[in-house]
Amino acid sequence: MLNYLWGAMIFIGILVAAFTGNMAEVTNGAIDAAKEAVTVCITMVGVMSMWTGVMKIGEEAGVIRSMSRGLRPILKRLFPDVPENHRAMDHIAANVIANFLGLGWAATPAGLMAMEELQSLNRQKDRASKAMCMFMIFNMSSLQLVSINIIAYRTQYGSANPSEIIGPGIITTLASTAAAVIFAKAAEAVT
Amino acid sequence: MRVISAISDLILPIVIVYILSCGYNKKINVYEVFIEGAKEGFKIVAEILPTLIGLMLAVGILRSGGTLELISKAAAPLVRRIGFPPEAVPISLMRLVSSSASTGILLDIFKKYGPDSFIGRFVSVMMSCTETVFYTMSVYFMSVKITKTRYTLAGALVANVAGIVASLTLCRCLWG
User: Fold this and answer.
1) A135 lies in a domain?
2) Which of A50, A51, A173 sits opposite B129 (nearest CB)?
């Protein structure tokens, strides 16, 4: 998808610039933006490495595993069609926890394995099961404790208090996930 | 309101102290494990950098050429009526499509208005409670060859809109 989106953004951007007479700004804007991506990443290396370092300790100490176990009772209610000890549950739990802790790179592999296991339980192979719909909607509703990269970006651009968005972020992420679960449960009941 | 800012201040220290004590409890060499994990942070950022250059380039062209402003202005009469900041229209739309492209716009907003402006705070909160929809859906469903996705898209959009509305309401209360 990015293949077309990226090109479209550039073509449209240049086309609009040509019509509005902003061509000189575009040249400088493009070069500035590319340069800035690097400065942003330098700040990000620091903040991100701090987080992955701490999370590695959490992984080795079994914190992540015990969190997934704690999630079981909730998952049982969200996915009543999935047998309790099915492997799908392990992968779903791993995906949710990884997203929750901001470990996006660990979340995707677990999520894809969860889909595979859910597909093995699915009777109609080209049509999403209720459990799949719930999993996807839940996943896309975003449930995360700390968006560490947003904090890194805020630091880079000189925020006086980069972490002030953590509290509001937690409240709103709960709101979006609550909306997701209510919608998915309602849709399950109707269809 | 004070509770919310207390949460912001306390979450990171609490997470760090909790995880460290779990590590000591399990008799892990926490310092070495931390260093090992920190190396992974380098790899992750190194992987993000090329996409960020690509997308910031595209966003840079859209911004400096006036396209982003054009979209905001075109949407302004419509979104103002519901109290939505027009400057946040491009990022809210892009958020659904691509995570890195919306990050590009986020950084652009930080640069132009500052991260501590109302719009800067609003998009920070909004980005932390929403998720890319179209990309995620296509990757996950394509991996298991599902073509009939039923109410998934509707649900994801409902969650996104709920997140945006919640962010706007909360930011108004906190920093109005």
Assistant:
1) yes
2) A173
